[in-house]
Specification:
single chain; binds xanthosine-5'-monophosphate; 9 strands; 310 residues
Length: 310
């Protein structure tokens, strides 16, 4: 791929499609949506509105940090808080695909609302090749694949979707992000799924359970950062395990540490995390999150497992 040419082609394509209209981009701060947002900002300038949907499923301080990074690039980001709506939609749901459906429907509903408010007719989206391949292959329904799953965005929600990096794999998107001048913090960022921490909470997604996995995620990310894994995070299981505290037995939460190496997320293998790091993570998680009694390390490659848990 010739990066410079790719960037120029996408910019002129976006310009041509949007014309004198306006577009809106839902930025998540991940490498895919960040790349698409900068491509669109270059193509459209003030004709682009950038929003960050705070769904309550992000990592610690994510909305504020993303806002800061883009402000430095001259792109204004509006953070819109829809946490309550997402948690209401997820309430009582435990089936993975039901959760994904609830997330997707809520995402498009609130996004549709924001689009109508902004009067934009075009939606810039960071769909990448793996999302399309896996959704078509039935591995899962990714929230950002509309047409493939039978949702007509124009009919249902009144806007057209532009997906500038849909032919690229993750490692290629990183090259484009770097070429666009995005900071290393973004272009070398671990992939983070659209439905956020929801994919790492097995069972019901409640504000409390998300807060727990969010804390554990920060600890895992901090402790394995020096190893630069493809992805590393914590998962909250929907089961409990007995522990002992001050001589008393207690039935507590189980956290899984997941760290994988991969090139394009289509296949992956577990990171060879040194035992002392794993021990440190376990110590920190049980000390900093007292409701957790057990921490385990996951060693399944993809396939047969997937990277995320739902
Ligand atoms: P899995 O769990 O299917 O994940 O092995 C493959 C890669 O995709 C990310 N992922 C998602 N990304 N929306 C996204 O934008 C989603 O619904 C989604 N589900 C998984 C995952 O983090 C991994 O990098």
């Amino acid at each position: 791929m010739r990066t410079k040419q790719f960037i120029e082609d996408r910019i002129s394509e976006i310009k041509k499609k949007v014309g004198s209209g306006t577009a809106i981009s839902a930025l998540s701060g991940g490498v895919d949506s960040s790349t698409c947002t900068v491509l669109a900002a270059r193509a459209l300038g003030k004709q682009l509105k950038v929003i960050f949907i705070d769904d309550g499923l992000m990592r610690e301080n994510e909305p504020q940090e993303v806002k800061k990074i883009f402000a430095k690039l001259g792109v204004k980001v509006n953070v819109v808080n829809y946490r309550k709506k997402f948690f209401a939609a997820l309430k009582g749901k435990t089936d993975p695909e039901a959760k994904r459906r609830a997330f997707r429907n809520t995402f498009y509903k609130v996004f549709g609302k924001e689009v109508l408010k902004s009067e934009a007719r075009f939606l810039i989206q960071g769909t990448i090749a793996a999302d399309i391949i896996e959704t078509k292959g039935g591995v899962k329904t990714q929230h950002n694949i509309l047409e493939q799953i039978g949702i007509d965005p124009e009919k249902g929600y009144g806007f057209k979707v532009i997906e500038p990096v849909k032919k690229l794999f993750k490692h290629e998107v990183r090259v484009v992000a770097k070429g666009l001048g995005l900071p290393e913090k973004i272009y070398n960022r671990m992939p983070f799924p659209g439905p956020g921490l929801m994919t790492r909470v097995v069972g019901e997604v409640t504000p409390g359970r998300v807060a727990l996995v969010r804390k554990a995620t920060r600890i895992v990310e901090e402790e394995v950062a020096s190893m630069k894994p493809f992805q590393a995070f914590a998962v909250l299981l929907n089961d409990k395990g007995t522990g002992v505290e001050k001589g008393k037995r207690k039935f507590g939460e189980i956290i899984v540490i997941r760290s994988v190496e991969s090139k394009d997320a289509m296949t992956a293998k577990p990171t060879n995390v040194p035992f002392n790091i794993l021990m440190k993570i376990s110590k920190r998680i049980t000390a900093e999150i007292p409701s957790v009694t057990r921490v385990v390390y996951e060693i399944t490659p993809k396939p047969p497992a997937t990277i995320e848990y739902i």
